[in-house]
Every structure is written in C-alpha cells, then in structure tokens.
Amino acid sequence: MIRKAENPDMEEILHIYDIARAFMRSHGNKAQWINGYPRREVLEYDIKEERLYVCEDDFGIYGVFMLRIGDDPTYREIRDGSWLDDSPYAVIHRIASSGRRHGVLREALDFASALCPHIRIDTHALNEPMQNALVKEGFRRTGIIVCEDGTDRVAFERLPS
Question: pLDDT tens digits for 70-111?
Fold first, then answer.
C-alpha cells in the first residue's frame, strides 16, 4: 500500500534513507546523498506539503519517495539533450527502499502514473543500479539537469504509452 507520509513515520523514513545511502556506497556511488541528505528538515517540509509517500505492508514501511505533479524548478533547463515532451508531468525524487521488498520503484511509478502518466526523474551519474532500473521501466535518458546544490544529475523521462 502507498500512502502519504506522516510525521510519526519520520524515524522509519530516516532509517530507510540510511540503508539506501549504504547501498549506493556499496555499489560505487559515493557522491550522491552525502552529508546526511535528505535531511529531516527536507522530509518534514515534504510531509507538510503532502508530497512524501511511503510504501507500507503489515510489517511496516519499506519504501519512501517524493512525488510532485507539476513543474519542477530543477527541470526548467536541460543540457546535452532535451525533454521529450512539454506536457504536464509528475516528478519523483528521493526514492529509497529498505531492501526488505523488491519493486519499490515499480510501485512508485504505478502510483504516480495513475495520477499523471508523463513522468520525469533524475539520478546521479554514478547510480548505475537506478539508471538500469529506469531504462527497464521504459524511461529514456534525456540529458543533464542541475540540482539546487549545483550538482549534475542524469535526467530521464517516460511518456504515456
């Protein structure tokens, strides 16, 4: 089940991000989500804005992601490529899994697609597992965007089928 995150979920959410950071480091990605990103304040803001979601089963929370429908400021400029379509889109950020269940990305994408089938997402150039998963889910690499902190990310887009 996917539901909006709530403040009492915070400790579980932070733990999932710790697990995700360790997974990235173990797969050669030492540059993404550094210095404790995403910080509690970012997640609290996302909860307040009702755009942080959790994947949950009878055993607890096993996945988390931010979903926004509408323009994303970091996606306004793209280099070394271009967006495939300018129609309204959803964006997924900060997706993470505890590793307890497989398929968090697919669950999040199915959930997002039901609300807006045009989806954009980005990841670090060193995050090969995520890039491979996105291609497997029908995304196309579209170029490079720059995050608020000034770092580059590889942008992907999936249009409605």
Answer: 999 999 999 999 999 999 999 999 999 999 999 999 999 999
Phi, psi of 50 (to 5 degrees): 60, 45
2-158 CATH choice from 1.25.10.10, 3.60.10.10, 3.40.630.30, 1.20.210.10: 3.40.630.30
User: In the structure encoding, which two tokens stand for residue 126, read together?
Assistant: 């060193």
In the block, residue with structure tokens 């196309």: 140
| Side-chain-side CA neighbours of residue 104 (13 Å) | 23
Host H or E run for residue 68: strand 60-69
Residue pair 47/38 in contact (Cβ under 8 Å)? The answer is: no
